[in-house]
Amino acid sequence: MAQSNSLKASVPAYLKEAQLIKQGAEARVYRATFLGRPVVIKERFTKLYRHPEVDEKLTRRRTTQEVRSILRCRRAGINAPVVYFVDYTTHCIFLEDIVQSVSVRDHIASGQTPQHLQALVEKIGEVLAQMHDEDVIHGDLTTSNMLLIPGAEHQHIHLVMIDFGLSYISALPEDKGVDLYVLEKAFLSTHPKTETLFERLLKSYSASSKKSPAVIKKLDEVRLRGRKRSMVG
Amino acid sequence: MQLTQDLELFPEYTVTQLLFKDVKNATELRKMAVNGEIKGALINPSMVVDAFQILVAANKAVHLHEIGKMKTRSLYSEIIFNLSPTNNISEAFKRFGVSDSDSAVHIVLVHNKEENLNVDDIISKVDGQQIPVDQVSDLMDAAKIKKLYKVAPQEEKCGSLLDAVVCRMATKDVA
């Protein structure tokens, strides 16, 4: 069928011209122009090692969850890239390209003053509190999944959350605690000797979130036992 | 005056937008759109924040048209439907389409790049004044848009009204 061939050609042909910026196990990320604007395209490619039906269902679910979580965050005033278009046939998400941004990971690694780092982690704590209060679990909290937009005013730290691929909606303190635990492990292993800094992040989180006591309690529990280890014999 | 944008995903397609104010023959124009004399989508500019919003709707319409999964019967009605935050087709036409009493009209044409589009022919059919498409934000009713799309003040902390509208349009099918 000529029509389906031309369709199958459109997005892949377009991606061939685009600039590949990252290749992960789950998806490829490109940069390109779409409707005259700079965009980032996240392509969840077919995994040949999976059973085709399972692959299709899982990929579709991951795509829709990602898109839903982004919308939910934005509605609550949490910065996440605007979704411009979703192609459910090729599982591609077209997002706004946050130009001139740097990942928090790279930002910290490039060396910052202690005062700036403190302000930064306080902001992160605030944003995460907001997100969890909306019952959005990010699922992959790392400093590489947070972007910093260099702002004009030094006081105003502009943070954008990205990569909601493993996110889901949950009100359970356990899930939020695990979300923070994932960040803690990632943070401390990526940025050496930052234990005090992370404590400050958690303090800021507690101060900003209405539901934090239960979450922090769960975080402590998870720290003791490790993730996904239900102590039910 | 008019605005033309190629659809990068569908290289054979181009979108041209025209904007008119002080329109006196909205009823006639509507008839012409229905009977095919004007091959385009007639949109109420008070619901349009920016030309980009139209492009997003048009892109999605062309995409669904190409895969045979449009929800409405024609490409043009699909563009109007895509603008709406809900899945109710008749509601979309009522709110985003042009009504007889409207005095401003936003015309969207989707055509082949090579096709010699007779824009002047369309302009001559409109009894009104053509204005640059980028002035569409002057004609928008922000309060009405915020109400319809349910944009809360807190959302405006992380982006513009256009961002809020476009995000909802793009995620309507799964939200």
Word description of this protein:
The complex is a heterodimer of chains A (233) and B (175). Chain A is an alpha+beta fold. Chain A is built from seven helices and ten strands. In chain A, strands 1-2-3-5-4 form a five-stranded antiparallel β-sheet, sandwiched between helices. A three-stranded antiparallel β-sheet of chain A has the order 6-8-9. In chain A, strands 7-10 form a two-stranded antiparallel sheet. In chain A, a hairpin with an 8-residue loop joins strand 8 and strand 9. In chain A, helix 4 packs across helix 6 and helix 5 packs across helix 7. Chain A is globular and about 50 Å long. The N terminus of chain A is likely disordered. Chain B has 175 residues and is of the alpha+beta class. Helix content of chain B is 42%, strand content 15%. In chain B, strands 1, 2, 3, 4 and 5 form a five-stranded antiparallel β-sheet that branches. In chain B, helix 3 packs across helix 4 and helix 7 packs parallel to helix 8. Chain B is globular. At the A-B interface, helix 1, strand 2, helix 2 and strand 4 of A face helix 2 and helix 8 of B.
Rg of chain B, rounded, reads 15 Å
Estimated share of beta-strand residues of chain B: 15-25%
What order do the SSEs of chain A take from the amino end to the carboxyl end, as H and E?
A: HEEEHEEEHHEEEEHHH
Strand order of the largest sheet of chain A: 1-2-3-5-4
Number of helices of chain B: 8
Oligomer description: heterodimer
Unreliable spans of chain B are none
Order of helices and strands of chain B: EEHEHHHEHEHHH
Q: Specify the helix fraction band of chain B.
A: 40-55%
Instruction: Please tell me the overall pLDDT of chain A.
Output: 89
Radius of gyration of chain A in whole Å, from Cα?
19 Å
Please tell me what the overall shape of chain B is.
globular
Q: Structural class given helices, strands, pairing of chain B? A: alpha+beta
The span between the termini of chain A is: 57 Å
Structural class of chain A: alpha+beta
Specify the number of helices of chain A. 7
**What is the number of E strands of chain B?**
5
Total strands of chain A: the figure is 10
What summary fits the major beta sheet of chain A? 5 strands, antiparallel
User: Which pair of chains has the greatest number of interface residues, and how are they split between the two chains?
Assistant: A-B, 35 and 31 residues
Q: What share of the residues of chain A lie within helices? A: 40-55%
